[in-house]
Design goal:
6% of the residues lie in helices and 39% in strands. It has helices spanning 148-151, 209-215, 358-370; strands spanning 36-37, 46-50, 74-75, 78-79, 84-85, 105-123, 134-140, 159-166, 172-176, 183-191, 195-196, 198-205, 218-219, 228-232, 256-257, 267-285, 296-302, 310-317, 323-342, 346-347, 349-356.
């Protein structure tokens, strides 16, 4: 299930020596991190249970951004860590003081959007002498909103994504996954105990066709509905994927912003829709982009991978910090969309409202069955 070619960071990290706490943090260029984080809180992910969180809360695993380390911050239970940290395990008694080989701690994670997992990152940032000896990750798929008790029931089938594997302290430990199934929940295990700062679960959203059919009209580009960013001209300040995150932007970096152009070109993002669709209305939002919003935008679509690009929204003036709405004169069929902004700057969100065609709905249902849904 995992790719042994990905660098591993095993062994102790050096004690914190002062200065920049990330100066000696170990990581690598993992091949899957450009994919959406299915465990993103913005998509609705959550850590719904853990057997132990004595030193640091389980919810920290999914916090956005890197873990923060304050060497002088202590509480009544000890060092306050920005991650999930359990107490030290002990054996059965004085004659057997060490934990058994099977002893471990666990946390149950609800993915924000069900999907196909391509890679997992378990980052032990700032856990230098208190990280787990090894980790393992399992996944399952259950409909609805199962409780922790439902997930822990003996008849639930779990698939191993990451077998028990040694990890390193103060390091981003990455694991490629090739399970080829749709999952809704994870079980993250620490062997035998310790701390993990962050969990990232990269993959592709695989929405429930029955839910989209019930909605009828929905945002065809949204991450939670299976939309994807295929490519972008520039990701200097913030990722293009932000433009299809749920909700409105809450601050400037919660959108897409490019560097300042010094040529005569323009910037763009290319999207893949959830499936073959009919678009009826467009929203282009520049919320919180006040001195750096795109000046103008144009929108084009294509039907099929080899289809020609056809403009459906001509170059139109955008206002800073404003949500712009454009109803289309007639529904437009498409599988892909491209937004061009002129000359540079950014947008916070793009919404493409419409519904799946019969062809798109059938393809999505077939994919759902193929992934075990």
């Amino acid at each position: 299930m995992t790719d042994a070619a990905i660098p591993r960071f095993t062994g102790d990290a050096s004690p914190y020596a002062g200065g920049d706490p990330y100066a000696d943090h170990r990581t690598a260029d993992f091949p899957f991190t450009h994919l959406v984080d299915l465990a993103d809180r913005r998509l609705g992910a959550g850590v719904i249970a853990a057997n132990d969180e004595f030193f640091a809360e389980r919810e920290n695993l999914l916090k956005p951004g890197p873990a923060v380390f304050d060497p002088e911050r202590f509480g009544h239970k000890g060092k306050i860590m920005d991650g999930w940290e359990t107490r030290r395990r002990r054996g059965a008694g004085a004659a057997e003081p060490h934990p058994t080989a099977d002893d471990h701690d666990w946390a149950l994670v609800r993915l924000g959007a069900p999907g196909v997992i391509r890679g997992v990152v378990l980052d032990t940032a700032h856990f230098r002498g208190n990280y787990p000896q090894a980790v393992s990750v399992e996944a399952t798929s259950l409909p609805g909103s199962p409780s922790p008790e439902d997930l822990l029931a003996p008849d639930v089938r779990w698939t191993t994504l990451v077998p028990r594997t040694p990890v390193g302290g103060h390091a981003a430990n990455g694991f490629a996954v090739d399970a080829g199934q749709r999952f809704t929940h994870l079980r993250v295990n620490q062997h035998p105990d310790g701390g993990i700062a962050r969990l990232r679960v990269h993959g592709e959203v695989a929405p429930d066709p029955a839910w989209l059919a019930a909605l009828g009209t929905f945002d065809l580009a949204a991450l939670e509905h299976g939309g994807q960013v295929e490519d972008a001209s520039d990701r200097f300040y913030s990722p293009a994927t932000n433009t299809i995150q749920p909700g409105r932007s809450r601050q400037m970096d919660d959108g897409w912003e490019t560097r300042r152009r010094r040529d005569r070109g323009n910037d763009w993002i290319r999207y893949r829709l959830a499936a073959h669709s009919e678009i009826r209305a467009v929203e282009i939002d520049t919320a919180y982009l006040k001195g750096n919003a795109a000046g103008w935008a144009a929108l084009s679509v294509r039907d099929g991978e080899s289809g020609e690009w056809t403009e459906i929204l001509p170059r139109t003036r955008l206002q800073p910090d404003t949500n712009h709405r454009f109803p289309l004169d007639a529904p437009v069929r498409a599988t892909g969309v491209r937004i061009d902004i002129f000359p540079d700057g950014g947008i916070s969100r793009l919404r493409l409202h419409g519904s799946l065609t019969d062809e798109g709905a059938a393809a999505l249902a077939a994919r759902h069955r193929e992934l075990g849904g």
